[in-house]
Amino acid sequence: MSALTLKGPYWVTVRQHRRALWALPALVAAGLAAVVALRSWAGDPYSDPMSYTGRGYGVLRMFMEYAGTSLLFLPLLVGAFVAGPMIARELESGTWRLALTQSSTAKSWLGAKVLAAATVSVLGAVALAGVYRLGWARVSGTWQLHWADRGPYEAAGPVLVAYCLLGVALGALVGQLVRRTVAAMAVTGLLTGLTLLVLGALRWSLLSAETNTIPLAGSPVELMPHSALLMDLGLVTASGQRLSENACFERTQNLTVCPADMNVTGQYADFHPVSHYWPTQLIETSIVLALAAIALYAAFRLVRVRDTAIGAGRGAA
Fold first, then answer.
1. Which of 100, 156, 252, 265 is surrounded by the most beta carbons within 10 Å?
2. Rounded mean pLDDT, 28-39
3. Predicted TM-score of the model (pTM)
4. What is the rounded distance in angstroms from the CA atom of residue 154 to the CA atom of residue 156?
């Protein structure tokens, strides 16, 4: 058991922030209890078809919708906590120097905080994603709970873990640069949020969309699978030119009748099938982890410079 006992700066870090570090397991337990209770209330759709329209099902849907949106803020909260209470507060108050008097280096001081935050964040994010998938499986595919929607996409996959690690890395870097608790929290939350927004906007450009065409008189339902994410829809001419879906209607007031001079031969749709979910998740996760590695490298380079300056100061004294 002694090998598993935390020592030095690791013990100090966990001891200092034990209440906050226990908050994530408590959140997981509360979420699991809520999801299990709501799924039980919603009933089994295979044995009771009316459960799809029952009150319990509606409450479960609403809960999962809000849960997915809430989990988007988890990486921001993680980053803000690392940047503020864990790092900037000690730099601001000067208490970090106490750790350096206990045969500890600035590098090990930062490493203990990063490791503690990263471990709890990874375990918590994995558990929360699992709890979310448990509830989401019952209502997936409904309005705003499609596999590609903002919220369910992040909450149910490995990207949630990657963004939490990015929050830890950015917090370690920004906390040292800003050195003011509230300001460091705000800047880290902003940077993490911007990364979420930017990659979310570029997400469906990581893989090429699939294209399907049907005759002009065909039903749009035939254009793509029911579960697919539609990217673009319109008309195609004999030369391959793409027109808007309303191009014929604007001239004939009929969606299935086109003027001969337009040479429209059919309809097209660009879409991402559900099979693109995991490849997109893995690509985005890799990008986020690479950004986290860069930020973490910069954070340790910065603390190494501070450690060297402190050592030089001691030598001069």
1. 156
2. 93
3. 0.88
4. 6
Terminal alpha carbon distance of the chain: 41
Q: How far is residue 266's CA from residue 144's CA, in Å, rounded to a whole number? A: 30
Most distant pair of Cα atoms in the chain: their distance? 91
Q: List, for residues 242-278, the tens digit of each pLDDT value.
A: 999 888 888 888 877 888 888 999 999 999 999 999 9
Tokens, residue 148: 């590609």
Judge contact between 199 and 284, C-beta under 8 A: yes
Phi, psi torsion values for 272, nearest 5 degrees: -110, 120
Q: What is the pLDDT of residues 107-162, one digit of tens each?
A: 888 888 899 899 999 999 999 999 999 999 988 888 889 999 999 999 999 999 99
